[in-house]
Write a structure and sequence with these properties.
The protein is flat and about 45 Å long. It has one domain: Helix Hairpins (Orthogonal Bundle), CATH 1.10.287.3510. The protein contains four helices and no strands. It is mostly helical. This is NADH-ubiquinone oxidoreductase chain 4L. Its main location: membrane. It is found in: Membrane.
């Protein structure tokens, strides 16, 4: 299971290194990297039975995702249709 997290971490790092002109892509890659890191920490917390660390990591992941989402929304708002078309193109 850890290979799965490692694969997505490397994939997001590769996309992050190749996308230098698009700020939205860079933010999306950072969100993907942090999501993979948090999911790996939650998985290891469940495997070792430390449920308190799982709760702390989950709360931190929700806070980080909220900040990242607000940054993405503000960048789409500032960039207008170009930012919206880029996000739709990614999805």
């Amino acid at each position: 299971m850890m290979w799965f997290f490692f694969f997505f971490f490397l994939l997001s790092l590769l996309v992050l290194l190749t996308q230098k002109e698009s700020v939205l892509m860079i933010l999306l890659c950072f969100e993907l990297m942090f999501l993979v890191i948090f999911m790996g920490l939650v998985w290891s917390g469940f495997m070792h039975g430390s449920f308190h660390s799982v709760i702390v990591v989950s709360a931190f992941a929700v806070a980080e995702a909220a900040v990242g989402l607000s940054l993405l929304v503000s960048l789409v708002h500032v960039n207008g249709n170009e930012g919206v078309s880029l996000v739709v193109e990614i999805l």
